[in-house]
């Protein structure tokens, strides 16, 4: 798994969304045993911090030291620099495994083997992601063109797994359930433009061309947006299963 997010770790920690309480309520309702959880590809630790309120111990891994440097410290969270497919955890010791907005970057077969190795019988596995932001009829066409047109050559092919809600990524677990949620925020145009700068495609473009591609749409977007904050909506999809 390549590290695509270290260079924008500070922006990522500030401008990426967090997840709604309803998502965590859904997870916890399906996880009766709450001794140890693993948040895989934890990034800046936002999911790990929430899980730490409900579990005795949380293990949180990421391949990016820069991302982990932005993560909050808690007495019952241990952060590890580790790939998803090979972890330092003992076999059959985890009650919950979570992956937020990252499983599309993994070697799916190797990751699923590792999950089966380290999960307790009956443990819960939950993977989720969020699709392209939705806003207003005057802004959505501009953002769709930037996402699927201007940036298309700079997205890794794995990114398109988000668009079909992981339908092509194996999920070899039992009692599979699917759920959908929404994240709604009120952002200024400046905040939204900085969110775009967290995209891996934007970082790749900037490395190749030496300029910020967000500036290609900044003026038009700012004019359409206006001075006020606007509501932005992120559709969140989740799949959950049990390890036997």
TrEMBL record:
A single GO BP: methylation
Record-annotated membrane-spanning stretches: none
Source organism superkingdom: Bacteria
Keywords, in A-Z order: Methyltransferase, Transferase
Any one Pfam family match given in the protein's UniProt record, by short name: Methyltransf_11
Keyword field contains Methyltransferase: yes
GO molecular function: methyltransferase activity
Methyltransferase type domain sequence ranges: 39-125
PANTHER family per record: METHYLTRANSF_11 DOMAIN-CONTAINING PROTEIN (PTHR44942), METHYLTRANSFERASE TYPE 11 DOMAIN-CONTAINING PROTEIN (PTHR44942:SF4)
Family named by the database record: Belongs to the methyltransferase superfamily.
Name of protein: Class I SAM-dependent methyltransferase
Organism listed in the record: Hymenobacter tibetensis
